[in-house]
Specification:
Layout lengths: L1 E6 L3 H11 L5 E7 L2 H10 L4 E5 L7 H11 L5 E5 L4 H10 L3 E4 L4 H12 L4 E2 L1 H10 L14 H11 L4 H8 L3 H15 L4 H20 L1
Length: 216
């Protein structure tokens, strides 16, 4: 029996997933969460075999949440369920500690298969992203722009863009203020940002692009 926690901020999505997993006698939903704080609370209180995690939730989410969970529960399989068919995002969450990445466009049987595979200890990558990831690995590494950022620098950029201070970022990622400041200096230089306003403007552009792609 696979004891599963579902973390997704949309109630309809959680209810649909629960109905789906009822079709598999080997999967049991033991908890659910609508944000990062609730997810951490559920993990503290429930003996879970796998976490099914939405990449975008209110508050602490995404790579920062995955990093924290992986740090606290290094053996816990994390299957990211995302609306974004983005190979770079998939790579980043896997580097942050996720075990698998699947998009919400996949059919139900593919999701169930991914849950079983990840719980068994194997990695899983959405079939639609495999070729894109393989091709992107062949590209030369850029020394500037978003492709030049390390996983940690990208995490910090997104948190700063969300309005978190250096101190708050350090607390969320469980690193020192000095380390955050050093990463901030490096990412600002790589991205060509001269101020926090540039950083926030760039992050807002990313979110708008993702929303547009989700509607198409």
């Amino acid at each position: 029996m696979i004891d599963l926690i579902i973390a997704d901020d949309h109630t309809i999505m959680r209810e649909g997933l629960k109905r789906l997993f009822e079709l598999d006698k080997d999967i049991r939903i033991i908890g659910e969460a609508a944000n990062g704080t609730q997810t951490l609370e559920q993990l503290r209180n429930l003996p879970v075999d796998l976490l099914l995690l939405d990449i975008s939730m209110p508050g602490l989410s995404g790579e920062a949440l995955i990093s924290r969970i992986h740090h606290q529960y290094p053996e816990l399989p994390i299957l990211v369920l995302s609306m974004h068919c983005d190979p770079q995002l998939a790579i980043r969450v896997l580097r942050a500690g996720a075990t698998g990445y699947i998009t919400k466009s996949q059919p139900p049987e593919t999701l169930i298969s991914a849950v079983h595979k990840v719980e068994s200890g194997a990695r899983y990558i959405d079939p639609e992203l495999l070729e894109q990831i393989a091709l992107s690995s062949l590209k030369p590494v850029s020394r500037c722009g978003p492709d030049s950022l390390t996983n940690r620098e990208f995490q910090i950029m997104r948190l700063l863009a969300d309005g978190f201070s250096v101190n708050e970022v350090a607390q969320q990622l469980m690193i020192s203020n000095k380390t955050v400041s050093t990463h901030k200096i490096n990412l600002m230089e790589k991205m060509g940002f001269s101020s926090n306003a540039d950083l926030i403007k760039y992050a807002a552009g990313l979110e708008n692009a993702k929303k547009s792609s989700g509607k198409s």
